[in-house]
Amino acid sequence: MADILEQGKVTRNIENGIATIEFFHPLSNSLPGKLLAEVAETITEMGNNDSVTVIVLKSAGERAFCAGASFDELISINDIETGKVFFSGFANVINACRKCPKLIIGRVQGKAVGGGVGVASAVDYCVATKFASVKLSELAVGIGPFVVGPAVERKIGTSAMSQLAIDATEWQTAEWAKQKGLYTEVYDSVEEMDKGIEVLATKLSKSNPEAMRLLKQIFWKGTENWDDLLKERAAMSGELVLSDFTKNAINKFKNK
To answer: Using CA atoms, how far apart are residues 172 and 175, in angstroms rounded to an integer?
Structure first.
């Protein structure tokens, strides 16, 4: 298991004021704690880089944008503190997106599950392909989408977020996600999506950085307490994952 968790990488590239951050993990771009920390740190770093005007956040590969947190790490949690740290991983990425002074464009080429939906919700402008279905599967393994919940609810509203959270085993289509406001555009192919991102990112790279910074502050008004809120949510999940109910649910999931 340790070898699998050590795999994966985060890369960054800056060209003409556009910073591209790409994450990858061989298990459907699921993200262990180490990679989550690196994604959060890279977003913060690019946000503080004076040569960067706009950020594109993406994952490698074709099939899955992000399968959420690492299941191998989830099943190894045996104490509350480890659980809090584990569930704080996506909290840190969401907060890094929130506090980054640069606008972030999200590129979702494939399915997004759990924390992956949280990342798509935390960027400022998210586009996807028609293959980018979404699912919040946490309740199916005995926990809940507590950490990503505020970001998802902020983006698509309480009604749509509760639909995803309650019907935890069902996928919702990319078109559904667009209708609810998660995606701003859904493309038929990756090529068309990348062309659209290039056009928008180029426009933004030539826009006033201070105007965009102030605009982003307005977009995120009312979330100033999220550093504490998401820590509290991580603690909720960290306690639940130790319960007999959740351990049994996880073991059933493993044995499918």
So the answer is: 8
Q: What is the CA radius of gyration of the chain?
A: 17
CB atoms within 10 A of CB 62: 10
Name the DSSP class of 152: H
Contact of 20 with 198, CB cutoff 8 Å:
no
Instruction: Note the pLDDT tens digit of each residue in 154-181.
Output: 999 999 999 999 999 999 999 999 999 9
Instruction: Identify the structural domains of the chain with CATH numbers, from first to last.
Output: 2-190+211-254 (3.90.226.10)
Cα 115 to Cα 19: distance, rounded to the nearest angstrom: 22
CB 107 within 8 Å of CB 56: yes
Q: Mark 136-145 as b/e (b = at least 16 C-beta within 10 Å).
A: bbbbbbbbbb
Give the chain's length: 256
* Predicted model pTM: 0.94
